[in-house]
């Protein structure tokens, strides 16, 4: 097994005493094009998992990164034998373009500004030579996802010459129920990179926006005469879906 991660701090979280795990401090593009990817001292690469990071690849590097990874898999083959017979696969686990997390409005906008419509990844992958999600029948939860639900998304597709077409992909959906206070804590800790765009004061303003939003929902949906100002947001529970889209790219 091999972990490729550009952040040294994050890389240190993986066990160093596991002799079956190689840790490489690189980004995906540098790794795929480097001698390390070809070095016999490392396990030959035939399967790649890109988990929750594809949206961090700069827009102008997406196609060259996909091309480098395609060439890497093509060289190593399905079993990582270096036979060059193809058959390798990439599993991309990525977030929806339109967030399902409960975000305050400014954070929601930052999320979408720093994401790509799903169709763009698929269009580039196919142009490079990958087959995309050929095994949808193996999944019980397959939905048609079109990440072009508003004017901004449509404009993004147009500006990048990416067609806005429905795409069937497996979706992992995890129902989440948690105290609103816990969500506020995660926001303050900047759990998602989205929150790195805000100062501490801006996060507090966003948190107050979320509290007011959920108080309003509770009052409007309840028969209780409880006033909003007397409600305790620390004990209020919220519910939402954590959704992960699965793209399987295979070398024919």
Please state roughly what percent of the residues sit in beta strands, choosing from under 5%, 5-15%, 15-25%, 25-35%, 35-45% or over 45%. Answer: 15-25%
Query: How many strands, which pairing sense, and closed or not: the largest β-sheet?
Result: 6 strands, mixed
The sequence of SSEs as H and E is EHEHEHEHHEEHEHHE
Summed over residues and divided by their number, the pLDDT gives a mean of 76
- For the CA atoms, what is the radius of gyration? 21 Å
How many extended strands? 8
- Report helical residue fraction: 25-40%
Alpha carbon gap, first and last residue = 23 Å
Which class of secondary structure composition applies to the elements? alpha/beta
Separate helix tally: 8
Q: Overall 3D geometry? A: elongated
Low-confidence stretches: 136-140, 146-165, 219-230
């Amino acid at each position: 097994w091999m972990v490729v991660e550009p952040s040294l701090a994050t890389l240190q979280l993986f066990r160093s005493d596991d002799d079956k795990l190689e840790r490489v401090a690189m980004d995906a593009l540098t790794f795929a094009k480097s001698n390390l990817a070809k070095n016999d001292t490392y396990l030959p690469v035939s399967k790649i998992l890109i988990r929750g990071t594809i949206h961090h690849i700069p827009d102008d590097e997406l196609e060259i990164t996909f091309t480098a990874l395609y060439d890497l898999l093509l060289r190593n083959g399905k079993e990582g034998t270096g036979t060059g017979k193809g058959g390798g696969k990439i599993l991309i686990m990525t977030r929806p373009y339109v967030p399902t997390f409960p975000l305050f409005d400014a954070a929601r906008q930052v999320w979408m500004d720093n994401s790509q419509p799903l169709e763009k990844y698929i269009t580039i992958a196919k142009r490079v030579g990958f087959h995309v999600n050929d095994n949808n029948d193996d999944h019980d939860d397959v939905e048609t996802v079109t990440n072009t639900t508003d004017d901004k998304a449509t404009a993004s597709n147009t500006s990048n010459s990416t067609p806005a077409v429905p795409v069937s992909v497996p979706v992992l959906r995890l129902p989440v129920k948690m105290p609103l206070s816990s969500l506020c804590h995660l926001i303050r800790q900047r759990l998602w990179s989205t929150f790195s765009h805000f100062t501490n004061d801006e996060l507090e303003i966003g948190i107050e926006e979320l509290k007011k939003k959920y108080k309003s929902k509770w009052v409007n949906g309840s028969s209780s005469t409880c006033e909003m100002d007397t409600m305790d947001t620390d004990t209020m529970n919220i519910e939402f879906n954590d959704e992960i889209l699965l793209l399987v790219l295979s070398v024919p």
